[in-house]
Amino acid sequence: MADLSVNLPGLQLRNPVIAASGAFGYGSEYRDLLPFEQLGAITVKGVSPFPSDGNPTPRTAEVYGGMLNAIGLQNPGLKKFICDAQYLPFLRTLPCPVIVNIWGRSIEQYAEVAAGLEEERQGIAALEINISCPNIKEGGIAFGTDLKLAAKVVAAVRKVSSLPLITKLSPNVSNIGDFAKCAVDAGSDMVSLINTMPGMAIDLESRRPLLANVSGGYSGPGIKPIALRMVHEARKAIKAPIIGMGGISNGRDALEFMVAGADAVAVGTAIFANPQCLLQIPQEMEQWLDRQGIKKVSEISNSLKI
Amino acid sequence: MSKTFQRDALVLSNEQIQGDYYRMVFEQPVIADMARAGQFLHVQIPGMPHRILRRPFSISDVNLCKGSLSIVYKVVGVGTEQLGQLKPGLLVNLIGPRGNGFGKLPTEGESVLLGGGYGCAAIFLLAKRAAKPPLIMLGGRSREDIIMVPEFESLGCKVLVATDDGSLGCKGYVTLLLEEYLRQGGMPSRVAACGPLGMLESSGRLCEKHSLDGELSLDSIMCCGMGACFACVVKKRADNEQGWEYVRSCQEGPVFKADEVYWG
Fold first, then answer.
1. Which of A18, A49, A294, B46 could join A289 in a cystine, given CB atoms 3.0 to 4.6 angstroms apart?
2. CB of B238 within 8 Å of any CB in chain A?
3. How confident is the model at residue A132 (pLDDT cuts 50, 70, 90)?
4. Mean pLDDT of A86-93
5. Which value does ipTM take for this structure?
6. Please, what are the domains in chain A?
7. Which residue from A minimizes the CA distance to B5?
8. Is the same domain home to B194 and B106?
């Protein structure tokens, strides 16, 4: 039985499979379906200092190989996230590490939410800084596609937070390695990638976009080759741990990301299709490693042969 | 909210009702035991490797003795087309029962249930489990869209029909039937409706105008069906500046009190 445990800075995972932000709500939604003690870690939906309504509907559309979403980071805001029983108080009862994804419309707001969570850090394993949401006008991807702004956001969060920091990178850049390096240099302990790819879908008869936001983020198996290549590029640029994601839906997908250079992986859209994938993926990884005679999953990280 | 299960279910039958409308019966005793009228199943349709999302369907009937439950669907796209091809004996993965469902119909007075197109599926189980047969009003574009009339009648329900083109029953929207009923002095103790958004808005506004106790099952584009993704949100009235907030149809709904829904 291969050892699936993974040690990331300040973050110990019993297996390398993390539920990705935006695909797992605030955890409680899946309490009937999943034994949390068997999950690697979960990442909750993006929290901002203010409550946010998100985008108009329709917000999602199924497309070939996956889906488009333009949810627009609807969330209850920092105060309610901390105080309301269904959010942080519930998350504190979970037996798996909880990563809180954060965002703001300005550098100050990123720091504000990070500072607020610093005071309430009990039960939070790490922060994931979302500088890559393609669906909001201010914030999000505006910070993730500009090296200077990305560095400022990460540094501002680093200044107020003692928690391990993960910076979630956008695939919508020409050189992902530069952004990975920039995030780590600014104080991020790790990076996660990729967020969704900007895309759109049209209803031919009405000639209208399927999303009210016109465009949205493409996720699902269709983006896996893009994500794998970006993890590989990021690995060449940094030594810090990488959480790889983008279209992972089975154990082999997850292992390919680790071979490309990831230390752990995250799963998003596949949860919508089958919540049990969060249990099945680690099992499939273990079976593959056992067949190969590999004792520890971390041994295959960054083992790409060229 | 009842407990949710993710279980494989055996397809017992999958038969055409008429035109593009089909009924599928699953054997899944655990979910059948828990199911209430107005709740839905989130169905993973096998055989669509490049279309990965589940589809939500109202639970239209339950047979507790057989441990089975039914959905009624119309073939409208890739997913339902594939669903129509599935043969008995196949296993299908279900998540359910999901959502809050309709409230039990009051024992006093007469309840009126409105179904638009395949929306009649959701109200069938409600009618079946009522202490006394409610009045049923069914609407659709044309006579091909009026289904399950014999089933409702076998429950002892009176069924009124309206079609947009007048090919069956009255010509016009199903809400005209409700308006006429109210005009003639009808005072329903509960109005419950499931169908297209326009029909629900008309039903909701009628309930408000006549101070009726109404419940509406909203059909919105759903993704995770678990309350996690916030795709299926609808506007619920709220005590804030804009007068509404987005709430999840799969979690806080799909059934809402008529006076909770914000129509703008």
1. A294
2. no
3. confident
4. 98
5. 0.94
6. 6-54+73-198+219-300 (3.20.20.70)
7. A33
8. yes
Q: How far apart are CA B147 and CA B19, in angstroms?
A: 10
Q: What is the mean pLDDT of chain A?
A: 96
Cα(B110)–Cα(B112) distance, integer angstroms: 7
Contact A69, A217 (CB under 8 A): yes
pLDDT in tens, B126-164: 999 999 999 999 999 999 999 999 999 999 999 999 999
Domain check: are B113 and B205 in the same one?
yes
Both B68 and B141 in one domain: the answer is no
- Two tokens at A3? 């050892």
pLDDT given for residue A142 in this prediction: 79
Is B237 found in the same domain as B206? no
CATH assignment at residue B228? 2.10.240
**B52 contacts in chain A (CB < 8 Å):** 62, 65-67, 220-221, 249, 269-270, 272-273
CATH of the domain at B145: 3.40.50.80
* pTM for the whole structure: 0.95
Closest Cα in chain A to B252: A29
Is A53 close to B246, i.e. CB distance below 8 A? yes
Among this protein's residues, is A133 annotated catalytic?
yes
Smallest Cα–Cα separation from A67: which of B197, B85, B48, B247?
Answer: B48
B233 and A275 within 8 Å at the Cβ level: the answer is no
